Amino acid sequence: MSAEHWFDIGTIADIPQRGARCVATPQGRIGVFRTADDRIFAIEDHCPHRGGHLSEGIVHGAAVTCPLHNWVISLETGKALGVDEGAVRTIPVSVEEGRIRLGLEPAILAAE
Amino acid sequence: MSQRLVIIGNGMAPGRMLEHLIEAAPGRYAITIFNAEPRVNYDRIMLSPVLSGEKAYEEIVIHGDGWYVANGITLYKGHRIVAIDRDAKTVTSDQGVTEPYDRLVIATGSVPFIIPVPGADLPGVITYRDLDDVNAMLLAAQSRQKAVVIGGGLLGLEAAAGLKERGMDVTVLHVMPTLMERQLDPAAGYLLQKAVEARGINVITKANTRAIVGDGSVEGVELADGTIIPAKLVVMAVGIRPNTALAKEAGLSVNRGILTDDRMVTSDPDILAVGECAEVAGNVYGLVAPLYEMARVAAAALTGGEDKRFVHTDTPTKLKVTGIDLYSLGDFADGDDRDEIILRDASAGIYKRVVLKDNRIIGTVLFGETGDGAWFNDLKKKATDISQMRDTLIFGQMFQGGAPADPLAAVAALADDAEICGCNGVCKGKITGTITARGLTSLDEVRAHTKASASCGTCTGLVEKLMTLTLGTAYNPAAVQPMCGCTDLGHDDVRRLIKAKELKTIPSVMQELEWKTSCGCAKCRPALNYYLVCDWPDEYSDDYQSRFVNERVHANIQKDGTYSVVPRMWGGVTSAAELRAIADVVDKFAIPTVKVTGGQRIDMLGIRKEDLPAVWSDLGQAGFVSGHAYAKGLRTVKTCVGTDWCRFGTQDSTGFGIRIEKFMWGSWTPAKVKMAVSGCPRNCAEATCKDVGVICVDSGYEIHFAGAAGLDIKGTEVLGLVPTEDEALEVIVAIVQMYREQARYLERIYKWAKRIGTDEVRRQVLDDRERRRAYFDRFVFSQKFAQVDPWSERVSGKDKHEFRPMTALAFKEAAE
Fold first, then answer.
1. What's the fold here for domain B3-110+242-303?
2. Is the pTM of this model over 0.80?
């Protein structure tokens, strides 16, 4: 995998604490999450179970519970926690001076 | 023919004695009890949790009315015995009842000691002995003013903590230099003072009360040095003395207490004495364990079957203030012939001291960490020589013999005769033996059969561990199912503690109730958010991040991520203008599906989230507000056409349904609430399967509740008939408010009602008008903050971030 390209998507303040927003891309939605301790994570916004928008779930610790059927997905690894099995892709994030950028792969770019 | 047994007093000791008596010799006596208090036998040890709000009176009743009936016992409530005629063998009450006896048991308990200072008889000076005292304190606490507690012993500190929890500004006056000096050494007394002060209670030691001042009622307490401490309420908790007046008048031998031999028989062989009023071998008692022992001995003496004798043992002392752990046992005075081992951990607030004599434990004081109390007590009782483990003794049982750090292992290691329940003197072997012999599976059953953990409850954890050990995985301590993996507390405890400790934010609940996770989970957060919204409607600010997406965006999420929108259609009545507006919205936003719901309104499905505010804006212009079809809250009030059109209608069911809906919309509830009003018993609105339903009849309004027609199907319970619409509304609102305050999150009314009991609900919201009104008023107050249309708020720009992506990336342009 070669170097990512970085896309500015906004500031930390755009996302509520213990909350999430989604970012629309030509490749689909990405959920961007802000934890209680202001860590930022980005994962595919598509639950591995039935495709629920994870960015609409309840954020607790470094995990989110899907609004459709309560799967719990780790924001750090993208993997389903507990007894469920499945995973979503995690997206590289950089936060500098409050601005959030997502690292997206050239493969996605090429697809456009 | 059975003999006549008369008992004076209905406290815990005679209550226990009767249990033993009825078990050993049912029918042997015709039993009559005179209780000066107008109530049944309740657990006095638990008065402090009632005062602090952690328990309700109903929860501490030991023998309900039914118990007396079932056992054929005559109970005179509110009868004080004023004379015993030993020649005629009768007793006479202040209400004029005279009852003959063959055997008499005096259990008059104790009277609180009132320090003889000027002003001690002013209104506002109370003691702390019974439920009436607690009620007086609760009444005074409503003023949220200053209170002084005189006496820094067990009772005084529990009273102070309770009053503080209830919002009063509390000062404790204690005549000695350190608190609880009879049970604690000075070091532990000091730590206790710090812990008490940390709760915001002022403590003044070496405080000599000179007078209680006030003109007509209490205004303050004057100390010997002239200081005056202002107070509206003064609680005297300086000690008790046995209540012997009646016995003395009857000519029985009395010293400090009523003198008895070691079979609890007084100087008159037909008269026994048990409880705090009795004196055996020079000792009088105030803690429950020896009193229960007296009860056991007296029951044996009355049946003549067993030759039981009362033997003195030391009883451990525990303080029932949530969050302060202390344990004290035996003798801990300094002395030349004594050794001691001390452990202090200032940062953790832990102090442990074991006093030894000839390598045997004679006393123990534990503060901050009391888990090893039972173990130390066991070593002391058996006079175990501890020289082999002396170096590690103070660290507790875990450190002995390399036992694994597993709490179950520690309990498993206890000997069969180790005492588990101090109040009732129940040892480990008795509990495990009874569980096996009787096939017990629940904590309540173990309590019923062994009495273990049935009094003060501090040993509940130990008893549960014994159940786990005995039953293995068959024991699921589901009696209290924790809310979720973030806490061991159940919903009921959390709700009680939120009120008792006045916790008003989610972080403070998690901090104070020692949540195991940093910010909860998707199970507990919405529950806590609801509890706080319900309990502090004016002070708590709703945490939207702790709500499910439907309640955050005020629409129902669908499987494809679109939403459905249901506007309120009051009582199911609509108009051409409303229908036209809906049609226009459907066209404008190309809404794919429009459907009539079971709750008599219209659902628009397949709306994109980004479109929601615009859809609401158009609907709002036609006068629509949110139907809360997504909410744990009031959903619909279904109606039939009633007297407006129907030839069978008996009342204006449509109008009443609309009135209910307009009154109650916007309120959050533990789970959804659906209602209906039918205009006659033909019940076209299907009111008898709703959470709350009304069947109109000629004579008024029959109110139903606790129906279900979902996962479970269940007809409603009939609450009762009321004559007017106004009263029906008040009752309906009161039921819902009671449910709002008591139910567990996501628990529907029918499940809650099953737990509480239909009769209890009826008693509170139908029979008890005062309580009904209080529920009603609290609901009305909370509506001031809840009855805001969430759709129009969002049309005006609230929570904009919920409805649109943070950004949309078009890669070609954005790529660097």
1. FAD/NAD(P)-binding domain (3.50.50)
2. no
